[in-house]
Amino acid sequence: MDNLSSTYDLLGLSTKSTGGKISKVRFDNTKQEFESNEVLFATGSWDTPKENTLLLWNVEQVSFGLGEQPSLTFSVLGKTTHEGDVTDMRFIGDNILLTSSSNGSLNAFQIINTNTSDFMDQSVGTSNYQLQMIMNRRLHSFTDTKNASLNSFAIKPHSINDPLVATVGEDGRIVIVRIEDSVKDHVIEDADASSIKAILWPRSNEIILANGCGQLRIFDPRENKPTTICHDPINIRVPINCLAFHPSKVHKVASGNNKGGVTIWDTRKLTEPEKHAQPHNSRVWEVFYHPYYQELLFSCSEDGTIGAVNFADFTPTFSSQDSMNAVKGQNVTIRKIGFKSNELPINSIDYHPHSKLLISGGDNENLLYTLI
Amino acid sequence: MSVQPFDSLHEDLIHDVAYDFYGKRFVTCSSDQKLKVWEFNQETNTWEQVDSWKAHECSVLKVAWAHPEFGQVIASCSFDRSIRIWEEQEHESKNSGKRWMEKARLIDAKGSVQDIAFAPNFMGLRLASIAADGVLRIYEALEVSDLTQWTLMDEINVHSSRNANPSTFKDAEESYCLSWCPSRYQFPMIVVGCGKENSAKIFRCDQNSKWRSCEILDGHQDLVHDVDWAPNMGRSYQLIATASKDTRVRIYKLTGNKDGFKVDAVAEFLDHDREVWKVKWNVTGTILSSAGDDGKVRLWKGKNNIDY
Amino acid sequence: MSLFPEHNSNILQFTPFTFEPPPVDYSQFEGISSFPSSTQFYEASVITEAFLKEDAYLGKGKGKQVEENDLKPETRKQTIFLNPLFKYDSNFWSTSNQSTGVKFHPTRSKDFACYVFGKEPKEKVKKESFTLDTQIYNCSLVHDIDSRRVFYNEAFSIFREAARAPFSKEWREKSMREKLLCDISWNYVNAIVNHIKSLQEIPIKDKQIQNEISTFRDMMAIWELCRIMYFIKSERYQRLSTDLLTWLNECYPLGALTEEELNELRDSPNLRNTVTFWSRLYKLILRGLFPQAINFLRSIIMAVEITSDQIINREIIINDIIQSVIKCIKSRPKMSSYDTGLAWRNWLSQCSQLQKSIILENKFLEENFIMILKILSGDPDAILAKSSSWLEGLVALVYHKYPKCETSDVRSTLGPVFIRFSVHPDPTSQALKRIFYQRIDDALSYCKHIDPWLLSHLTDLLCKTDLDETIGGKSLLLHQHREGYLIKFAEPLLTHSTLWQVGFKYLEHCEKFGKVFMEEFVGKIPFDNERKFEKILKICEDNGLKFDEKCIITTMGTKYMQIKRYASTIIYYMRAGKDESLKAICNIFLTQYVESGKIMFSEVLDSIPVDKNSNESVNFLSRYRLYHSLIQDEFYVQAAQVLVECLRSEISPKEFWGVLLFHTVPLMKLGRRKGIKLFEKIHIDEFIYYCSQVLDKRIEDSWLKLVQRMKRWHYKETGYFDISEDLNPVKIECERYKKNLEKNHSV
């Protein structure tokens, strides 16, 4: 891992049917790796006037013998239309794909395998899937006629059998719903007077929100008022676009902001963020931790690159007097990954640890990927 | 070429239409005293009515949208001598007749108000109007959030020779029109079509915020019905088009010199053969459209792009 | 309302026609859709019978409209639009109160709306009956570019590569530079080919798709020819002639034989006598398709037994001749760098010898064989005689007669071709002709009529080659035009709902004029949600469009203002630096307090972290709120400090200072009673000063109103009667406090 070369090159996958500018890519991490050979992922598009598309993909690695770089073949397995831009996406158990839309709705799609072959691992790459919408609920709006974009959602931990989903949007509300139960929603009105951009649900009694003015808020889902509100004094009022939590340390949260910086927080001590780094020079859209190598944070940005920040050798350096101006984050190592002729923003990334595949999608309507 | 019509369902003659800043909304005004606002629905590919309401006591003659940074604001002017400012109310439902609320009524004109136009937004929220009394009035909303307060900044007599009595003017014979210079790198300027003088005049606002009449665009033999100032787009000269009752469309080129502009009439089109009523430049100032009594709409394009 | 205008009663037969437009198929208006230069495009096609019946004006027959007059050098007349409802009657509109009007779309340069409008308002005309037409016609002259999205994206990344190429280290070496350019050119062609393939996969091809396919084919042909003629210059083993031949066979291939021809060939008793056979064979030879030619020749070799029969002897002779011709073809020297002139001369003399030796009884056969050999030896008359188009003739001529010629020599060979053939006036052919003549500027001006993509990208790539060197000294207009063409191409992208980002990226590569266009269009991108908004802002940030950035942020703020989400509004106004608007919002909140006595903006402020750099009005609100919460929590000393701060800052409107002064009263009283020193003497003096400021005549109106409103709730909330218009309670309290201070001081 330490041997990442300083600028990797993302291999461009030039494909005809990405269905538009990609706003989200997500691997299907719900299946165990030994269950099938298929590595599935989904892409969602945005900014297409009539309808955006959701595509379900399969990627296969074909090795040509020892010492050679395995080559990858991508194929589209299923497709469906999606109303509004795809703002967030996640696979949950039972072959369901959950997406949120810029028209304020939360959608769930059932993935139905229409391949009638019995044996799964011998399917010769031509399985066909159908994506069928099983839920479409408009949860966020400003007025009756004006929709508010549903920016992000999170799933309550340990509720995978009957998932409880918390959604946030530009109207500043938190709406908590069960997937197939359309009866009761729990709504926290006015969770924030401005628009909420990201949400995390690391523990059953702790929801973390990030808003358009760079604040983090922690809520107990049963209460209507936040238990804590904090912000980053160094990046004051800089909107935070995304959040991610550490795979094993549940009190550690990473955020990416509008100026291209990432910040690590400790939820036990929110008055001051723990670490900073500046992998990009423009808006960071997504961050996530490497699942195994846990001090490595990936981020993708509007500047068209992917950053990998290694916080392992972080040592804070304090200047003698003013701890407000402590220049932290001097000693992190940042690697950048980019595609030579890509100037257009990258909106989303995801990583599949088993196949070591990092895929990303952006505004050049292509998938970009690399093996790390 | 594709043509897609939609019916505006007015009960009387339409007098003016205007696109909003993004081209996604449309307002129409008519002799039935109503204003109707339309919105383009991407999914059904049609124009849908947002609201329709009685706006004035008489026929509504012209209508204009303000820049969206000021909100959803429309100004309309009418034969009843008033200019009214409307603002969209989000909490009212569509097609209720209450979605657009009258915020201000400007009644300084002593004749029917014949043309209004919002200034380019770098000047703030400003509105120019010209009425049958031959006076160019410029209003500004000094506090942008309060659309009820409009200050009359300037009143300029378009006809310098006739300073006096508005009552001697006869509405029926005068025809005024105006157009702001859209360029942000120039002093504020308006070109006004001056009715009976058969010409158009350029008024410029100097450093002391005083409006003065500057160059004159003449050459027409009859009333000037419409003027339009082309967007500049980095060219070293300005273009103004005029449409006249004398069946001609003219294009004037203004090249800057140390005192102002040198005016050249660079083109004259006689093709309409009938009174020409409207001229309008497109967004890049490369195509001019004109329409007249011959029932045809003509599009004109410059042969040589001088600076490219 | 009468639908039949009285003065035109003889014409119209519509009924619902007025309100519902007829279902006319406008797609047949082929010529009107572009702004071409040649006359043929002025004729509009006639459409349906309904139209003929109504005799709707179609603008036909106007013929050549180009202004010849020098006085008007800049304009040229273009399209005529039609109004389908009324008969064209030159007096119809003039005499009625209606006329046609037009308005352009604010963001798309070729979209406009037409309508019928009334010239004078109803109040000024006598009652007249007319046909009311309330239709608004939205017209668009552009073709949909949505189908090209994938292609444009691919092309953009190649464009980007091309833009970066001059900065790479390979650029300095000439040969590497050529290779780079060739690679880039190849990538472009690949993209074109991919797009053609994807178009061909569409099962139902309507007219537009077919047009697209043919346009792209043309683009490919032109591009490849440019590559051959311009991008490859150094010595290499592949000669121009073979390249041209390959080009011809790829872009304008010899089609398959038609049904008729096939039947003819199959049914013919003796192939040797069939005209079709020979004409096909000539084509194969002209186009250097030698393997097929050889097969053809072999097929007319007839098996013979060896006898001494006269006839059969003839056959043998003929067979021999055929074999020799085949051998001749096979032995044609390959193009390689070590081909000497000698090899060619030998081969040519072989050919001519063979040619001379062919004497047959069958003159038909003799002529044909001799013709073949003539072609092979490069006889221009023979070649041109058997070519069916100028392109074929040209390439064949170069290949057979001047196989070793260089690009700069091609021009001189072209004379005979054009004497014999005329070139079709369509832009592609004209462009190709100019490329052969190496008149690249002229070629590009024809490309204008093919496609703006071709024009802009080709010009851009050509600008990177050393074109100036090859065309002796004449200055090229390419470089001047490059930006103009790129902008013209990018402009429709800027307002496309998906391709706008790519469009702006193109403008970034136009140094002189790109910025002006960016300024004009960046504000016009509509946005509904914050994500798109942020992306638009990035474009502004990247290109230094500060004013537009501010406008866009303000627009977003105003959107939130209209739905009363004040926190978001404040955040955006702060970002845009709109101090005046922020002041107005703060006043709204302060007014709310005055009305109700309650702080309603707490939650709003909760979402906005403030520091010393944030807007002063927002800071004021934040401090003021702090004051109230300190009072509630009974931290009176700190509350007093904050109150003084608020007053001293003078940020709130003057009337509000009065409110702050009223707040001082209970604190002063408390201070006296409990002996806590809440204010200094200097503060008290300030309070008196501020009292006088509040009582200024100029704000009298608003002050009085404010006091009235406060009076309504103040007693209920605080139990004090301390409100009065003359601020006396404040003044009295100040005096008492001062005395108290003096007393304590002196003690």
From TrEMBL, chain A:
Keyword vocabulary terms for this entry: Nucleus, Repeat, WD repeat
Subcellular location: Nucleus
Presence of the UniProt keyword Magnesium in the record: no
One Gene Ontology term, aspect cellular component: nuclear pore outer ring
Taxonomy, superkingdom: Eukaryota
InterPro entries in alphabetical order: WD40/YVTN_repeat-like_dom_sf, WD40_repeat_dom_sf, WD40_rpt
Entry protein name: WD40 repeat-like protein
TrEMBL record, chain B:
One family name in Pfam for this protein: WD40
Keywords associated with the record: mRNA transport, Nuclear pore complex, Nucleus, Protein transport, Repeat, Translocation, Transport, WD repeat
Keyword Protein transport (UniProt): yes
GO molecular function, a single term: structural molecule activity
A GO biological-process term: cellular response to amino acid starvation
WD repeat segments: 7-48, 53-96, 217-254, 269-301
Compartments where found: Nucleus, Nuclear pore complex
Entry GO terms, CC: nuclear pore outer ring; Seh1-associated complex
Key word Nucleus present: yes
Similarity remark: Belongs to the WD repeat SEC13 family.
Protein name, entry field: Uncharacterized protein
Lineage summary: Eukaryota, Fungi, Fungi incertae sedis, Mucoromycota, Glomeromycotina
UniProtKB/TrEMBL annotation, chain C:
GO cellular component terms given for this protein: nuclear membrane; nuclear pore outer ring
Compartments (UniProt record): Nucleus, Nuclear pore complex
Superkingdom, natural source: Eukaryota
Keywords on record: Membrane, mRNA transport, Nuclear pore complex, Nucleus, Protein transport, Translocation, Transport
Single Gene Ontology BP annotation: positive regulation of DNA-templated transcription
InterPro entries registered for this protein in UniProt: Nucleoporin_Nup85
UniProt GO molecular function: structural constituent of nuclear pore
Transmembrane segments: none
Annotated family: Belongs to the nucleoporin Nup85 family.
Chain's role: Functions as a component of the nuclear pore complex (NPC).
Subunit structure as annotated in this protein's UniProt entry: Component of the nuclear pore complex (NPC).
The protein's name: Nuclear pore complex protein Nup85
Lineage: Eukaryota, Fungi, Fungi incertae sedis, Mucoromycota, Glomeromycotina
